Amino acid sequence: MLKNRHLLGWLQASPLALVLLAFLLAPIVMIVIVSFWGATEFSIYPAFQFDNYEFLFGSPVTYRVFGATFKYAFITWALTLSIGFTVAYFLAFHVRSQTMQIALFLLCTIPFWTSNIIRMISWIPFLGRNGIANQTLISWGLIDEPLEWLLYSDFSVILAFVHLYTLFMVVPIFNTMMRIDRALLEAARDNGASGLQTLRHVILPLTKPGIMIGTIFVVTLVMGDFITVRFMSGSQRANVGRLISNDIALLQYPSAAATAVVLLATVLIMIAVMLRFVNIRKEL
Amino acid sequence: MRTGYDLELVHLTKRYGDTLAVKDLNHVFAPGSYVCFLGPSGCGKSSTLRMIAGHEEVSEGSILLDGADVSHLAPAQRGTAMMFQNYALFPHLSVRDNVAFSLRMKGVDKPTRHARANELLELVDMTHLADRLPAQLSGGQQQRVALARALVTEPKVLLLDEPLSALDPFLRIRMRTELKKLQRELGITFIHVTHGQDEALALADEIVVMNNAVIEQAGPAREVWARPRTEFVARFIGGHNVLALPQGKVTVRADAVRLSNEGLVGATITAVEYQGASVAVTTRTEAGDEVLALLPEDAFFASPKSPGEAVKLSWDEGRLHRLEG
């Protein structure tokens, strides 16, 4: 009987386990294997050598590109967090009626009705040399000649990231905030806390798990991105994703795989560190 | 020694849009007394409490505490403290930090505020659990922490919003004893909102019965029980039968009703309930009124009755109490 129950348990868990094995674990194992292979200008051959990693860690480009990726991730994180927290706070605590809350929340998701690429491309006529932004600023007399840094720059890359990913911050933070018992805010007021003190001592600590989940979303999305950087920088900026995509375009699969493994390890370490600070288990 | 502070409500009114939640309340609370607001849900008792606490805007009228109008002050500046229905303890703070919260907001340094919090925890007998988180406490323990947190501000009036409703019946009775004891020791006014009449009778020096946004009756517990002013009070406070007699509506206490073979009113027994020390016999009179007779156990079993039997109800004329209106 006991043995039977064990068997049943395994059987029940097996469909999901098989799916994860086939579509998550196997590809990663494959990438790790390929990362040790060798490559020439025209061929790839199975091997077990560290050439790819040696080249990767020996090249100053790698460190620069990783540095740029961290920079994008950090700035995007800081901006999406401050915007996301503010929006979620407004939705959760200032909008009183639930209908209005839902309506405004849906409003936030409208940009998601079109694809990422289209949303990115739509910035180009806006930010371009003769785009709407520059023309407006000139017509207001604020500037005399078009701003060059609006498009194809770090600014435009980060702008697009923030635009694309702020909602990933809003949703988990809003979700956590909605679970905060309103009586706690009254209790804080009853104990003499000002609005700012309530925010700092009650709302912020209780919203930490949501902030952490949003952070994981945004950081992993930005760390793994390559298309936004390519489009919005006009191929003038690089991050790790573009490094990999360039290798793939040149059919240098082993080198691409090695970079991917390093990136994966980096992101996993970052998430592990974050989870040390905040317990998100009760949010799941 | 008693330190007393007057609390007075003057023409206190609360409107939500067109609905009147509290209508023109006028009342003076005796200093240092235990007051229970009693009434069904939606009668305005919670709104009144929340207005006194400052968590609800006053639509009209004012609240005077210790001679000063506090109607428009922030909750923490009024000299009141509130204990919330589900205690509203901060889940991310330890018991000690919860109690010290208001001191922290005032900028009191850590050693001082922890020392003060420890004193309060001592008072409610929770010192040994000071480092726990609220989620690791039982309902009764959480309530003590909530009490300590409310009392750390040294309020003149402590407001309790259905403080016992989240506890199981056994604990409820124990905690109400402790509440009463604490109130007597501190000598401050407790205002306790409840919909349980037994709770109100057990605790209150003064009961304020509310219904439909107004005070139906206010007075010492014994007086409200012995001489309910209106039919609503008589029914809500329990233990009374309301009868429509030719001279008007009267009440007769359930324990004053006797069953006999000759009596004043004919009735049929509809239910018999054994309650230990007494037996509750529900009857329906020929006029259609439901009358409850609470008989001592030995008297009932001397001549047991069962549902469906016809009986006569009787009582001493002096036990009838006339209702107003």
TrEMBL record, chain A:
It comes from Pseudooceanicola antarcticus. It comes from the Bacteria. Keywords: Cell membrane, Membrane, Transmembrane, Transmembrane helix, Transport. Residues 66-274 form the ABC transmembrane type-1 domain. GO terms for biological process: transmembrane transport. The keyword Membrane applies. This is ABC transporter permease. PANTHER family: INNER MEMBRANE ABC TRANSPORTER PERMEASE PROTEIN YDCU-RELATED, INNER MEMBRANE ABC TRANSPORTER PERMEASE PROTEIN YDCU-RELATED-RELATED. It is a multi-pass membrane protein. It is found in: Cell membrane. Gene3D superfamilies: MetI-like. The chain crosses the membrane at residues 16-39, 72-92, 104-124, 149-174, 210-233, 253-278. InterPro entries: MetI-like, MetI-like_sf. GO terms for cellular component: plasma membrane. Belongs to the binding-protein-dependent transport system permease family. CysTW subfamily.
UniProtKB/TrEMBL annotation, chain B:
The keyword ATP-binding applies. Keywords: ATP-binding, Nucleotide-binding, Transport. GO terms for molecular function: ATP binding; ATP hydrolysis activity; transmembrane transporter activity. SMART domains: AAA. It holds the Pfam family ABC_tran. GO terms for cellular component: ATP-binding cassette (ABC) transporter complex. It comes from the Bacteria. This is ABC transporter ATP-binding protein. It comes from Pseudooceanicola antarcticus.
